[in-house]
Structure formats: structure tokens, C-alpha cells
Fold this protein.
Amino acid sequence: MSRKCNVLFLCRANSARSVMAEALLRELGGDRFEAFSAGIEPADDVHPLTLAQLRPTMGDLGRVRPKSWNVYTKADAPVMDVVIAMCEEAGEAHAPAFPGKPIFCEWNFADPLAAGSDDAEQRRLFELVFRQILRRISVFVALPLHSMKASEQRLAVNSMDEHAPPSIAVE
């Protein structure tokens, strides 16, 4: 493989879902992927429950921090191969133009912060969403993206839902 596949995960605040995906891809993707994440309206800090989910299994969490998706539209930004929206708000219709010609995919995961539940329920929701993202990243890293055409990549990444166990809805 000539170079790593650059993958950008997007969501609203870049404090939970997209950060989980970035950290998991960095950990599971080995030398095949470089992971990034950003948000529409980035939070000041990564949510503490996100860090609680990542800390037991991740090595270095020092690189994870909320940032605006505009960081990746600049001329000196890394060129992305794949952009994955983790929620409808960050979908292709709403996202800015990113340099290069990345394939744009959508993995809609429930927002564990939107439930407005008590602390125990919120911890449960974070764990649930973390497991769903982990399952999706595990399938993603097995895809032979570098040997596929862009149209095949987009279809494969978007159709992973059909081949993975069903996600549990967060209500």
C-alpha cells in the first residue's frame, strides 16, 4: 500500500461519536488508516463519558480534542479519502467542500447526549453507542478500500449496516 487512507468522522459537537470513531480507527486501523474527526459546532472538551469509554482500551488519547470541520477545508489540511458523517446534521448536504475528492458516507448513530437522562442512563447510552461504533469500525477496517473504485468504496462503506448485527436504537 502506497499511503494510509485518510478518514474524517463528522458530527455536531465532536465530543462523543466522532471522537470515538477517530480513536477506534486509529487503534484498529494499524498502518492502513489515518483518522481525524471534527464537528459543526465543536464543544470545548471531549465529553468525560467518551473518555471513560475509550480509556480502558486505547493507548494515547492526547490527540483527541474537539475541532471545527472548517479545519479540514483549508489548503494545508490533509486530503481526505473518506468522510463519514456520524449524524444527519453532518451529512453531505450540509458539509463544506473538503479538498480532493473524498467519498462521503453516512453512519447515523444516536446521540448519547440527546436523551436528557440521569447519569446512570447516560453512561449506559454512551456504552451502547461505543459498542455500535466499535462494531462498525471493525467491519470498516476489513474492507479492501485501496483495491476498490470510488463508487464501490462508497457502496461498501454505506452498506455495512446490511452485513453487521443490527444497532440498538437509543430512545
Notes: The domain at 5-163 is CATH 3.40.50.2300 (Rossmann fold). Helices lie at 17-28, 48-54, 119-140, 150-158, 160-163. The longest helix spans residues 119-140.
